[in-house]
Amino acid sequence: MHIIKNEPNPIFETLWLLHTSQHGQEFDELFIQSLSDLGLDGKEIFETKFDDYRKYVHSFTENRKDSEFDDFFFGEPKESIITILLFLLIDMPELFDDFEAITDEKINEYLVAVVGESLQMKEEEYAEIITFEQIFSLLMSSPLPDGMKWKLSSVMREPRKYIGALVEQINDNLPNFEAAYSLVKDNLAPFIKDYERVMENKSDKAFFDLVDKAYDDEVTIYPTIIQPVILMALTGSAYYGLLVDSIIRGDSYESRKNTMLMQFKVLSDNSKFTILRSIKEEPKYSTQLVEELHLSA
Questions:
Q1: Is the confidence at residue 212, as pLDDT, over 90?
Q2: Is 164 exposed, middle or buried (0-12, 13-18, 19+ CB in 10 A)?
Q3: 237: phi then psi, degrees, rounded to nearest 5
Q4: CA within 20 to 30 Å of 143's CA: 35, 63, 184, 202, which one?
Q5: Helices then strands (H, E): number in the chain?
Q6: In this predicted model, what pLDDT tens digit does every residue of 54-73 receive, in sequence order?
Q7: Percent helix, strand, coil in the chain (nearest 5)?
Q8: For the ranges 3-12, 15-24, 218-227, 248-257, which has the lowest average pLDDT?
Q9: CA of 66: how far to CAs of 13, 35, 176, in Å?
């Protein structure tokens, strides 16, 4: 069952706005280069198609509430541990509803499962990883980049400290997301209508085939502004970039889409996360989990 939302997920958007706003023009250049690598005129597309995206990010950046943990979480555009913590934050709404009830053990149990599954471990194997010494050994054996291993080990040594700080910063910046979204919402209405049409008609057959293959039960699908050229899924939720169809629309729509989109391996049904597909050579600041976790296509 598909539950279609016509507005972005505030947590998803705010997290990536925090990340994007930390790096400024560097991300613009990465976007242009990534589009150019697809054989497109990256500069022209960015200047003509990304005006509202730039307004959105600029509005958020002007009012962004910083944190002493900014550099820790958002300092590295290519190896940010946000690519791992995203799953935790989206999959556990109780982090935002009642953080005081969350234990260190519950946070680490989830993160151990994410890393364990990236190593293709069975659930009964990673379920026995409880002590920090065991967690540290697991992290060091994972294919994550070294910088991510060490930061994730810090998080898992003091989970409530680090995750609590990140949850607090997201909560503090939700009003800034809402203000930025309000600024561009009317201009984005045509893109939302295109997205709704795709969702209603299920015209992006490859996307829906993969969604249906990945989920036995219901999945909630959101449009995303901050990740405008990706299609991806987390546990129970999927995200459809608002500019995907606009960028590749034309006479050669299907051939262009087949060229641009890379289908990634769909992990087993009991996986904590599944990447469905993403724009080939997507912007380097986006979730590069297939590459970073060494998942085969």
A1: no
A2: middle
A3: -145, 145
A4: 35
A5: 17, 6
A6: 999 999 999 999 999 999 99
A7: 60, 10, 35
A8: 248-257
A9: 16, 30, 12
Looking at this protein, which amino acid is placed at residue 165?
A
CA distance linking residue 257 with residue 243, whole number of Å? 13
Residue type, 21: S
Looking at residue 59, its pLDDT comes to 97
**pLDDT score of 18:** 95
Residue 15 contacts residue 82 (beta carbons within 8 Å): yes
Place of tokens 């904590």: 272
Q: What angle do CA 235, 239, 244 make, to 5 degrees?
A: 150
**Torsions phi, psi for 24 (to 5 deg):** 55, -130
pLDDT: is 247 or 180 the higher one? Answer: 180
One-letter amino acid for residue 177 of the chain = F
| Cα 294 to Cα 288: distance, rounded to the nearest angstrom | 10
H or E segment and range at residue 162: helix 159-184
Please tell me what DSSP assigns to residue 266. Answer: P
